[in-house]
Amino acid sequence: MDVGSMINILFEDNHLLAVEKPVNIPIQEDDSKDKDLLTLLKDDLKVRYDKPGNVYLGLVHRLDRPVGGVVVFAKTSKAASRLSEQVRTHAFKKIYHAILCTTNLPSEGKLVDYLVKDEKKNMVQVTNEKNPKGKKAILRYTILSKKEDLSCAKIELETGRSHQIRV
Q: What contacts 115, CB < 8 A, 6 or more positions away?
């Protein structure tokens, strides 16, 4: 397997590995049993560095399967612990770019919704704040450009709900 031809490695040192996750590859093994990014990268590290036994690679954050973008992994447990703390305290900044099928949004804004997830279907939908299963979801966006009936938006999440941006 040649990970270099499949996955773009953006940065690597003794502690971190940052890669560009391709669209439609799961981050970790799921029910589909499709090859996942974590396993592909562990296999690559094992071969490139001629490592015997299991390779440690800590998953610090995720991107949904249909989404492409930068993912950071920890190559040591100490790095994983420190990165997890940064994610928890919001010191680890995640910025998303999305193409929207509209040009009818203000140039910037804040969206507050309540989301409910159907675990069996792995589907999320908007509900109202009175729904006891609804979880508050907040994001801020800035429209970067518009062309025809599409907009490119920069998105920053205040909450990290499942499928929050797409919903």
A: 124, 125, 126, 127, 134, 135, 137, 161, 162, 163, 164, 167
**Measured torsion, CA atoms of residues 87, 46, 9, 141, in degrees rounded to the nearest 10:** -30
Quick one: 81 and 134 in the same domain?
no
Q: Do 29 and 100 share a domain, yes or no?
A: no
Handedness of CA 76, 78, 80, 82 (dihedral sign): negative
Q: How many CB atoms lie within 10 A of CB 120?
A: 6
CB 19 within 8 A of CB 40: no
Exposed, middle or buried: residue 52 (CB in 10 Å: 0-12, 13-18, 19+)? exposed
User: pLDDT digit string (tens) for 116-156?
Assistant: 999 888 889 999 999 999 999 999 999 999 999 999 999 99
Q: Output the pTM of the full model.
A: 0.81
